[in-house]
Amino acid sequence: MKNTFTFLIGLTLFFTASAQSEISNVPKDKVRNTNVTSAASSNNAPSSESNRNPSESISLKETEFDFGKIPQGKPVTHVFEFTNTGSTPLSLENVQASCGCTTPVWNKDVVPPGATSKITVGYNAQNEGPFAKPVTITYNGTQVKQITIKGDVWKTPVTSAPENTSVNSLKNE
């Protein structure tokens, strides 16, 4: 057992060293530069408007909503509003949740430039505990955005009120 463990550690170290040496043999023109400069250190930092992707045509008022604490067994919904900020009509092809407990509902009509529309996301709070559910929006063919709902489901009592034992003593008199 000791020899097998030592062999596995040695094999892992060999592959780790081998992988590092292969990276150093990659031609420099094939390596992508990932230098990041902070906006605070640059006086010529571009504005947030110029950072916006010009092909981006959907602007969400919010991308995440926290329901907070919700009782178990009580479905909840939230409405996400968005605006077509592009110059062409916007079409939502699909709005898909990550599981069956989350149900998105959206208008399938085309949204003209400058117009707003809504996506209603419902959550069936059957399971106790915290949750975070992503919902993927596919629009204009291949463009994708993601919104998230989250919260914490607390267990509701089995009975509506605790049993009153004093009632039995009143009945016996």
Automatic annotation (TrEMBL):
Chain intervals for the UniProt region annotation (Disordered): 36-57
Pfam families registered for this protein in UniProt: DUF1573
Superkingdom classification of source: Bacteria
Signal found in the keyword field: yes
The entry's keywords: Signal
Signal peptide extent: 1-19
InterPro entries cross-referenced by the UniProt entry: DUF1573, Ig-like_fold
Keyword Signal recorded: yes
Transmembrane intervals: none
Protein name as it appears in the record: DUF1573 domain-containing protein
Source species of the chain: Ginsengibacter hankyongi
